[in-house]
Amino acid sequence: MTKQKNKDSKMTGLPPGTLIHVGERKIENAKITVINHNKEECHEINIKDIGDCFPFDKNSSVTWINIDGIHNSEIIENIGKHLNLHPLLLEDIMNTHQRPKMEDYGDYIFMVLKMLYHNAEQDKLEIEQVSLILGSNYVISFQEKEGDVFNPVRERIRKGKGKVRKIGASYLAYTLIDAIIDHYFVLLEGTGDKIEELEEELVTQPIPKTLQAIHNLKREMIYLRKSVWPLREAISGLEKTESTLIEESVDMYLRDVYDHTIQVIDSIETFRDMISGMLDIYLSSISNKMNEVMKVLTIIATIFIPLTFIAGIYGMNFVYIPELQWRWGYFATLFVMAVLGIIMLLYFRKKKWL
Amino acid sequence: MTKQKNKDSKMTGLPPGTLIHVGERKIENAKITVINHNKEECHEINIKDIGDCFPFDKNSSVTWINIDGIHNSEIIENIGKHLNLHPLLLEDIMNTHQRPKMEDYGDYIFMVLKMLYHNAEQDKLEIEQVSLILGSNYVISFQEKEGDVFNPVRERIRKGKGKVRKIGASYLAYTLIDAIIDHYFVLLEGTGDKIEELEEELVTQPIPKTLQAIHNLKREMIYLRKSVWPLREAISGLEKTESTLIEESVDMYLRDVYDHTIQVIDSIETFRDMISGMLDIYLSSISNKMNEVMKVLTIIATIFIPLTFIAGIYGMNFVYIPELQWRWGYFATLFVMAVLGIIMLLYFRKKKWL
Amino acid sequence: MTKQKNKDSKMTGLPPGTLIHVGERKIENAKITVINHNKEECHEINIKDIGDCFPFDKNSSVTWINIDGIHNSEIIENIGKHLNLHPLLLEDIMNTHQRPKMEDYGDYIFMVLKMLYHNAEQDKLEIEQVSLILGSNYVISFQEKEGDVFNPVRERIRKGKGKVRKIGASYLAYTLIDAIIDHYFVLLEGTGDKIEELEEELVTQPIPKTLQAIHNLKREMIYLRKSVWPLREAISGLEKTESTLIEESVDMYLRDVYDHTIQVIDSIETFRDMISGMLDIYLSSISNKMNEVMKVLTIIATIFIPLTFIAGIYGMNFVYIPELQWRWGYFATLFVMAVLGIIMLLYFRKKKWL
Amino acid sequence: MTKQKNKDSKMTGLPPGTLIHVGERKIENAKITVINHNKEECHEINIKDIGDCFPFDKNSSVTWINIDGIHNSEIIENIGKHLNLHPLLLEDIMNTHQRPKMEDYGDYIFMVLKMLYHNAEQDKLEIEQVSLILGSNYVISFQEKEGDVFNPVRERIRKGKGKVRKIGASYLAYTLIDAIIDHYFVLLEGTGDKIEELEEELVTQPIPKTLQAIHNLKREMIYLRKSVWPLREAISGLEKTESTLIEESVDMYLRDVYDHTIQVIDSIETFRDMISGMLDIYLSSISNKMNEVMKVLTIIATIFIPLTFIAGIYGMNFVYIPELQWRWGYFATLFVMAVLGIIMLLYFRKKKWL
Amino acid sequence: MTKQKNKDSKMTGLPPGTLIHVGERKIENAKITVINHNKEECHEINIKDIGDCFPFDKNSSVTWINIDGIHNSEIIENIGKHLNLHPLLLEDIMNTHQRPKMEDYGDYIFMVLKMLYHNAEQDKLEIEQVSLILGSNYVISFQEKEGDVFNPVRERIRKGKGKVRKIGASYLAYTLIDAIIDHYFVLLEGTGDKIEELEEELVTQPIPKTLQAIHNLKREMIYLRKSVWPLREAISGLEKTESTLIEESVDMYLRDVYDHTIQVIDSIETFRDMISGMLDIYLSSISNKMNEVMKVLTIIATIFIPLTFIAGIYGMNFVYIPELQWRWGYFATLFVMAVLGIIMLLYFRKKKWL
After folding, report:
1. Quick one: closest CA in D to C291, which residue?
2. ipTM of this model?
3. Sign of the CA dihedral D312, D317, D322, D323?
4. Are A316 and B311 an interchain contact pair (Cβ–Cβ within 8 Å)?
5. Which terminal residue of chain C, N or C, has fewer Cβ atoms less than 10 Å from its own Cβ?
């Protein structure tokens, strides 16, 4: 997340459409995988140059080109030239600070999505931008690095499971979007677990570290929200577009994925509410603890300060203090002190401080 | 509520339309009940297999099939095949994390609702998903477990009370929805009672347990809200749909149930406002108590510290302290101390600390 | 307000349209008053049974039937039968937990409004539901108890003041709505007075009772809001309806009453803002007072603790303490103490604690 | 502002359209000024009765009638009769608690605006209601008292500066509205100045008086907001109306005045944000100061309490305390005390309390 | 920002369309630069009077006139006369308190934008108003002072890089808008950096200066927001306008710049959320620190006050205190004191205060 700060400025002053990678470089070399499939068969190759892959495009089967690594402007440019893509679209692919969006360019539909990982090692959220181009019989997906979210889809294509090889390119695009959004649920489960842990901690032992953890959670929610809210609009746009690129039978599936997005948003809002409730609890319990500390101090001080005063009285060196001469003066004084102390304790009990 | 966390991930990577039960399994074996009725008569049977029930479907009477238990994918799949239902719909029925929604599939209308129970034993909210399919002359309802919310409806059908046997399937669907939403009022009454109890507690004795109770209430409201808000849209959709499945005379009843939903939402929002007000009160009363504790400490310390100082003065062992030799020195000192103490007390009274 | 809790549940499980009174019973016996008037004359009778009144309905004059007391389902049912009203409408009349609303049933328009009283004895807000049915030449109003809000209207009809006897039934309905909304202003004036009193109290002497009063005010605003917000929509609906029941010349008056509703809403929102500002002030002034208490304690302790320490030093019983033998040791010590005390005081003055 | 409370109730129970002045009476006698102008000439007279002025109305020039003082129902009624105005409109003119609004009555357009003054003597905001009636060749303006906001417009008409004498009545109405809204900027400048002053005060010396000032500012913003928000809608309505009373060339000017209104709203919202930020700062700085006070107390107490204890030890009168007999016992004790004190100080420095 | 306060009032009372500079004068003399270019060539001149430049206007190439300094009403008026611009538009150009907006005047489109700089010397945000007029083959831009934001555009025109010389005036206008919005990203990067620094500071050492910095950041966000939110609407208006001044091929670029605006808004909202989270953290850590201070005080006082009391007891001068005569009385007392102290310490450890 912190990588954002010194990259955007690279863009300033450049003409629009200039291809410059904005964001962190997450992979060494870009990798291009092509899967060409129809109902009967499925071919899969890795290529170096986009030029190698396009004979695939000519037949009637569906081609899925996946590019891992978007920092290489040459590759992106080549793809753009081959498919006659708009320069602004190419710029968007390479700039990882896009909001999720859907743009209908007529011959193809362009989508930007955010893939969210929880980096277990550093215990922080990682965001990866995924761009999709849906054409008449091809889908091109751009990832920042190799990822495993699309692997199940790949498996299904290879094995011919589900409908992915029976319906056209728009269904393939849908399955990719669906895979990304399904992954959000995994992430939200993790967040839900953390929230429960923290709530337990809050009740048993609220320490500053807990506050820090709550704050981190809150930040994650801010980022998640930023990634998911615009997604809703994007998918809704996809569902409502009148583009012929989206087959009619896919509409129902898009409605389903839209429902999932709303579910994700609902969960995020619920978590936000719960986290802000936790902050309140934390602050109240800090106040409670301070109150308790104060009570201990007050009880001790209020009991002993008057007693010490009495002891001070009889520690004075006046030549004539009659009580000092009394045989039982000392014990009488101790008795008075004990009575005073007990009265104080009773007072505190009445006040429910004890 | 906490069950959500380790189930959703089961879905990840599976092709859409795969039938997998997501959620807690709340009943051992699924149970299918069929009630077939028209103005004249009413038959009721329990069946094992959905295949056994469909001769009912052929005549002109209304058939209500209720399935308790949705974890058995075979049963769900069979129903889907019999009625030619969309696979995504079946997936939704089995995934208990759906939002309330209404979907018009043309031949039938699909609704997801949330039934909310207050589990008295564990003193927590329980959510059960209820799915409804409304066809031309049948209604199919899916519950997670056997419940008693639909029992009054069953009774009415058996006894022929009300209009339920006079109007068609859409009226039956309406009565089921109405039964669920009526149950929300029972729940909200319970919440209202709790809020009043807590408000009384807050005034008499605010303790951390009260805070915990407020917080729990707040969480319940978050979940309630999540269940009811989308319901509004769903019912509004039902009311406005142009589907011929909804008889015209039922429209007025749907408007009524929509009004009830709004009433529920209003109450939830009111309760939320009141709960957040209670949190403010709690925090203020903690502050007030701390203030009171501080005052006691300050009064005691402020009175006795100077007096103890005076006693300390005359406890010094200087060879030449003239006052010590005075005949009435001791009593003069006591008098001065008393005067000082009284001045302090008057000062505190003036400050309204006493 | 607290009456809500054990009544709604009566409805659960009953078929829709069942006539059951939900709410508190505020009057012993229902009372029916009929006022029949046209430009020339005005008749007024009290009847027991609704059947007695309807010859009035046949001529061309306007009939206003007012029913005080809605707990008697027989009376409501009779009216329903006479006028052929929808059963859900009758149910709504008897259920006092309706939201304000407007429903156009074609032959008649149904409205639910909330009358708000300030119960001076118990110093709390009371809500009464008023239902209106506007037909072609009659208006039927249902109140929970006898009230004086409609008395001025009655007077005007009797005396033929204003336009009420010159325009038709829709103008009569308007005057009734106007009377209710005008009453809100009286209520808001009372609230405004209370707010000002409390603000003064806050400045002079913030005590927990003030907090309680603020909290009560806040709750009242929550209820007021709940009653008035939906009213806006209802009256707007009335204004925009294309029903022929509303005479054209009445439109301008409805616009006026709509303006008043907005004014009421504006005032409520303003009061809410002010009340939440008062809570902030209360909390800050508690903090301020605690700060002041702390300062007194700190000044006293910080001055006397070191002095007491010095006194303690010379109270030690070491055989060889040279100072103790000095002729002016005692006075020198007192002098040092005085200087120390003055330095402390100057320090506190510099810190602006004094 | 506080005058509102005992006036609205005057209206309750009266038939709509009754002319009663609601609000504070700000001027002794109403004053009517008529300015009749066209491109060539400009006549100006003061009249007592509205009947005297209307020969002006017959020619093709533009007539501006300004009435200062709206408490005289006779004058208002006369105007109403002369121009055949709707009784509700006249009621609105006399009731100073209207919201800003625009109503198109066909033959004329009615507007209510709020003029806001800062009363320098009492240092509070004053609100005056201004009503405008725009007819085909006349504008009538009603003010609560004589004001100087319209003086520049009067000057411009007299001197023929600007376009005011070249375009028709709608341009005159626009200049009056513009004059009022321009005055808001003056007011907001004052508020901006106050906010800056207070921010400086907050940083240097946060005292309860500052809090009071912030609170007053907040209240002023609440009232300003209430006056300006509905204005936006009113002016937008004026801009979008299809009434022929608004000359086409005036549209652009109305758009301009609409922009100004939005600017005013923007500023109010910005000020609100800033004021609420100031409250946060105030509360934090109170906390900070309390923290500082606590630290001083703790440092003093923590250093001297243990030392006093040591002194107390050697002040005991046991017959056998070996240290008391030591030659350097006293100095050793002083040394130990000094070392202890220094250790404490170092500890506090490490904790950054010093 | 603080300059706003004594300028707006200059406008009050003046006829609309009066040309008066409102705002701070940031440059000595206005400077006019004209760049005339087409696909083949590019001429650039500096002129004194606008009259000198317009032969450029007659040919088919695109002319960009940039005016630095808007305080000279003569220059503005001349331009207005030459191009027949609306007087209100000229007034808007000279009044630097405009909101960003887009107005379609038919023959030309007028836009107001805000350029935001971070003034490194004074460490504060600076706002400059930029107005653009887009005509059929010219663009006129007005800046408050010479700036470098447009320099890259100038360079591209000179060198013929990008499309700027190939497409018409609307593309030029787009590049200018794009340059301004791109600059926002630079600013937001700076803000992001500051937020991270402050978060680190908050964790390590929260001091009042940190609070001040958070507050300043919050204010900057308020101003940024005020500048950018209306921009969204303005650019959206530009995108959707049906004016023929916008070439069709530029539409896609405007959509892109609109996306950027949304991205900026998103970032601002995210920063606002983060800053408000920081305020919470600051307040909690102040509370935490106070709690810690209290604990130290309480531990010290609670341990030593009772011990000092015991010492006080045996410091009393009663003639008969048996313990004083005991041989090991002193050591026994010391032992008792040590045991008491240790018990206290164990108690505090149990309470987790240590």
Report:
1. D290
2. 0.78
3. positive
4. yes
5. C
